[in-house]
Write a structure and sequence with these properties.
The complex is a heterodimer of chains A (441) and B (981).
Chain A (H helix, E strand, L loop, with lengths): L9 H6 L1 E5 L3 H13 L3 E5 L4 H10 L6 H15 L8 E6 L10 H12 L6 E4 L14 H24 L8 H17 L7 H17 L8 E7 L1 H5 L7 H7 L2 E4 L3 H19 L5 H26 L8 H8 L14 H11 L4 E7 L3 H6 L4 H7 L4 E7 L5 H18 L10 H8 L10
Parallel strand pairs in A: 1-2, 1-3, 3-4, 5-6, 5-7, 7-8
Helix pairs in contact in A: 2-6, 2-7, 3-4, 6-7, 6-8, 8-12, 11-12, 13-14
Chain B lengths: L5 E7 L3 E8 L2 E9 L4 H11 L1 H4 L5 E5 L4 H7 L3 E2 L1 H12 L5 E5 L4 E5 L5 E4 L8 H11 L3 H8 L13 H13 L4 H21 L8 E4 L1 H5 L1 H10 L7 E2 L7 H12 L6 H8 L19 H11 L14 E9 L3 E8 L4 E8 L4 H16 L3 E9 L3 H8 L3 E3 L1 H12 L5 E5 L4 E7 L2 E7 L7 H11 L4 H9 L12 H13 L4 H21 L4 H4 L3 E4 L6 H11 L12 H10 L10 H6 L2 E7 L8 E7 L4 E4 L19 H10 L10 E4 L5 H14 L3 E4 L5 H7 L10 H15 L4 E3 L19 H13 L7 E3 L8 H12 L8 H36 L2 E6 L7 H4 L2 H7 L2 E5 H4 L15 H15 L3 E8 L5 H14 L5 E5 L5 H23 L1
Parallel strand pairs in B: 1-4, 4-5, 6-9, 9-10, 11-14, 14-15, 16-19, 23-24, 25-26, 27-28, 27-29, 29-30
Antiparallel strand pairs in B: 1-2, 2-3, 6-7, 7-8, 11-12, 12-13, 16-17, 17-18, 20-21, 21-22
The chains are: A alpha/beta (441), B alpha/beta (981).
Chain lengths: 441, 981
Amino acid sequence: MELNYVQFTKEMKKDYTILVPNMLPMHLKMIIQIMKTYGYHVDLLETTGSEIAELGLHYVHNDTCYPAILVIGQFLQAIQSGKYDPHKVALVLFQTGGGCRASNYLSLLRKALAKAGYPYIPVIAMGLSGIEKHPGFTLTIPMWHAMLYAVLYGDLLMDLVNQTRPYEVHPGQAEALAKKWTDRLGEEMGQGGRVSYRKVKKHYREILKEFAAIEKRREDKVLVGVVGEIFVKYSPLGNNNLEAFLIKEGAEVVVPGLFGFCFYVVYNTLMDYQKYGMSKLAYPVYKWAFSLFLKKQRDMIAAYEEIGGYRAPTLFTHTLELAKDYIDFGVKMGEGWLLPAEMVELVDQNVKNIVCTQPFGCLPNHICGKGMMKPIKERNPDVNIVAIDYDAGATQVNQENRIKLMLSNAWRNHQKIDKPELVTQKEKRLETEKKPEPVPI
Amino acid sequence: MYHLATSLGIDIGSTTAKVVVMEGTQVIYEKYERHYSQVRSKTRAMIEEIRDLLQGKRFSLAISGSAGLGLAQSAGIPFVQEVYATGEVVHELEPDVGTVIELGGEDAKVIFFKGCLDERMNGSCAGGTGAFIDQMATLLNVSVEELDQLSLEASRLYPIASRCGVFAKSDIQPLLNQGAKKADIAASIYQAVVNQTIAGLVQGRKIDKKVMFLGGPLYYCKGLQKQFVQTLQLKPDEVIFPSYARFAVAMGAALYGDKSENTFTYETLMLALDNPNAGTSLSNRTRPLFSSQEEYEAFQSRHKKATVAHCDPQTYQGDAYLGIDCGSTTTKLVLLTKEKEILYTYYSSSQGNPVGIIRQQLEEIYHLCADRIQIRGSAVTGYGEELIRNAFRVDIGLVETIAHYTAAKYFKPDVDFILDIGGQDIKCFKIKNGAIDSIILNEACSSGCGSFIETFAKSMGYTVEEFAKKGLAAQAPVNLGSRCTVFMNSSVKQSQKEGATVEDISAGLSASVIKNAIYKVIRANSPEELGKNIVVQGGTFLNDAVLRAFELELGCDVIRPSIAGLMGAYGAALYAMGLKESQLLTEEELKKFTHTAKSAVCQGCTNHCHLTVNTFSDGKRFISGNQCEKGAGLHSQEAELPNLYAKKRAYLTQLKGKPGKRGKIGLPLALGMYELAPLWHGLFTALGFEVEFSGLSTRRTYEKGQFSIPSDTACYPAKIMHGHMEELIDKGIETIFYPSLSYNIDEKQSDNHYNCPIVAYYAELLRSNLHRLDSVRFLYPYLNINSEKELTKELYQYLHPFWPDLTHGEVRRAVTAGFSAFDAYRTQIRQWGHEALEYARAHGRRIMILAGRPYHIDPEISHGIDKLATSLGFVVVSEDSVCHLASKPSIHVLNQWTYHARLYRAAQYAVEHPDTELVQLVSFGCGVDAITTDEVRSILEAGDKFYTQIKIDEITNLGAVKIRLRSLLGALEERRGQCGA
């Protein structure tokens, strides 16, 4: 068969730098550490700024999804920055495939590279369904294995930071602790060889204990969940620093982890078999993976419960149970049924305020996001959801104004409305210079 | 809680600022003013005005409104979200209100109080708001007050897309051109706002009485009030239009402030407002248009060269040639000497009456000519070409592209790229070997860029010239994005709040218009792709800031003729120079000339086009607004040309149900059903069901279902599905079937065979949002239609619980019957395709592959474009009738959708056959087509073919489509002429 893409060869592995777009910093830093041990030179792109979207718009149709515009813009900016020799870089894209147009990011990136004059740069699609062959880039079982733990650790750390940060007495402690652990775990998993699961479980407990030991204030916050299209949900570049904004507004942010998405991908293959009689060969493998994942999740939840002090994640089978009356598990494009499932999972965890993020014009989200809000609101009258569109042309003021409305209602439902928390820092400075620190409630 | 006596509420919306002073729940002072985005200084000034009222008091205070957030933060003043504030105030003052509808400058809000409190705001596209009404008033050339007055005198309503200002503009322009009454248009605009609010925000939720209406537009516009009350069928005692409609948010803010712990005095407030922290944000800026004075001077002198010689008409004697460009918004005339010098020019807005303007201009010209000058030839081009040609007996009617090319060639004989940005449209042509090689016209989202700058300049109190000049001097132009003018407008407002200057905004807008043209319309990545010799024209390029932004973006110099705005007319005049004797109405005939326009509804078919019948003094009639030739009273042979779209429609509409033992089953004829109708029809008929389809869509179908649509940026074919469901339920059908199909039929021609997410899972959305479906049995099983065995198994499992007497064998036989019906349909389509191609070749007709999706054959979705194409002399075939005849093209994207894979192969067929053209139909909001359009275009262009794309939505301006198709024809003819020579 004719090869219509540039391969990443074994020679390239020696001195090429592989660029990875940023989405979930904690997860990716550990994954990169793992890859480094196996001889790859990997760089995580952490650039920000409006130039990224601008550059992306030059090379991608602006009716395409915003994440594609951002990821491609970020790559091109890095390549053109002079920091790398364009003849010595390769790019990695995360792709899950499926009927959404997002499966075309790979082709769009290649087209963009060709247009920008870099047709020779190899692009590697990383995902569960590897269609293309790159002799210099092979993910071995031990690597997959280690990456699975990177995802689990990443979810744990992200969740604990989210649950700690709004309350910490010494700001920055939670972040610092998470950094310490990502460095340590990345290095540990980067030793190569098999990751010892006993050690992993031990680490869970150590991490949980250390976070629990952080000094916290008892401060009343509203819980706000963030769900949505995977890129704008997680990436601050994609969602205009949504998490930071919510924290500033006095919320505790709850973001369902990446492991749920892994479950979702696996579960969809099971559904293909059950619904359509497809994927007959893969079925047993995925079934095994599903029970493996479930065990891993159970073990983590056990650690949460043992140490205490933190809200544990929801077991995936319970999420399925919660969601089954809202949408069929056959809806598998984009975030598919996982999106409403995460919303009801949040509601079940008593997180009644939800921001549903999506790129402007996102196809699956017409159905799974905006299309599911009505039944979710009807069956959970106290739930408070706002849908926010992200786009290169959308203004932040309009986005934040809608989030603020959601927050106002959140506070009202919280019975806290006669003590406005908003803009408190500066109010204090202006009006009550001599007043002591507000007493924690 | 302090409960001070005095409380101040400030509401800063996107366009206006409101201040109230309250004592308890009593308003003792109120003020409402436009802030022109000078948020800080306006607020300061408004507070200063009430110095006497506040001095010496301690008062509480809160700010609200979308533009107030930044100010509140920098000044350390409590902030309350505006919808929340409204909710609070209404709850306190009018506890028996059930629903609040509030329209602001850029936001529309609805609050439901009964049951569970629900507060809603509109999405990203700012349709149906004050800004929208402002824009529409500008378009009609009236003030907002006049618009309101006009609306009260309306006698009929036209359908106008309301979800976005850009779309609405594209609907109104042709209405104006057709001579529709302004009063009717004004009322239609209001109705569009009402529909948008109800469809987009209420979304089928019950509107509890009483209903309170708030916000500036609903306070001022009596016509809008009237239409809301009528549409919602409210009785007088169920409606509240409070006197404080404009101040509700400010009052809510005051009440909110009253509950907070912070208090202010006049002095501390003023100090807070002056907080230097609130400096100008310089983020998101771009480079200035000129880095030095020298650069600016070089630019000026370079562009002075492209001028045309003028000749004094008072002294000139001899022959002259007239060119008329009757565009969508402006009318232009040029009179030339035989040496191509300009004798006379005219450029003005059409004001909805091009015939009147041209008549007046012709009189003027005849007067000017006296006995010295004889008009030897005349030509007309543009939207109004046919109308004007018929009215004044103009010699030649010319396609715009040719007119523009003719003119550009005069300035640069070896021109290879022309970009024309007018008020409404962006057009560009590539020239290769002296012939037009490709034509690119903007679609709805890019329209109105030029006039947007003009409108905006005016709103800031500048002329376009002054505004452009300011842009040239900008130090740090703001980046305003390039999606569309609605998004740009909102970006402008944000940047103003961040302290951007008029200079920076002017330059930023110029750059945005250019980026929109280059990256959205032309889709180019480098100047090399455009050409070496670029001519830019159109009224918008007279703006030097736009011109400079274009040169900067491309990194090369271009030519802008001094008559950039007149190029169409100039080209027409040049074209007319080939004539010896003109048939143009003489001066005497002109004196007797009369013209009346009357609206009528065509009864030629079920489409019922709204026609405008023009009658001239010599009794000649000219009809516009018709989708096909029938409307024009003609029955030409063109209408009989083979049309696969019509044939497919006929096939599907003759599929009738047979009464059976299992009762009726309803199938909605929309989305994927268009392709698979024969399969499900055959299958269910065999199972003993009486199959009933919902029938072809009409505008009414859409309107029926629009109230349950949760996402208004979804495509029209999906949105119309709601109406089909309603129609089936209205028919009393108790079982409805629309399956969920992740995978479509595998035609073995692509990497995978998915449906798009919308086609695949729309049933889930319908079930969740269309409540009436709860009263019927809605079947939407997940099925595999690529294996008879699997399908049998799945269907049996799914249906058996509902019909326990059903047997597996019965289902198996039914599946087989269904597939044989489906195969028969597919074979028939290919057979018809074959016949159409043969007919075309036997009769020397051009072939058009009208390439879209199966559901694009719906007359309401494709708006009769197929008929228009046959009336222009094309034999129309569909993508699925010819794609099997082509070889496999090389594709650079993931080819994984069944419907879309056909597009690529159909494009390949066009490449392989010189007599075949492909026109791609794209539904607005189709995310998948953002990928396919680029790919189809590259297949066609690699094969030296024209790429024509027509974007369609709930309403489509057929006039624009016609121009597009005629441009294609014109270019084809020209190319053929070249080959023959």
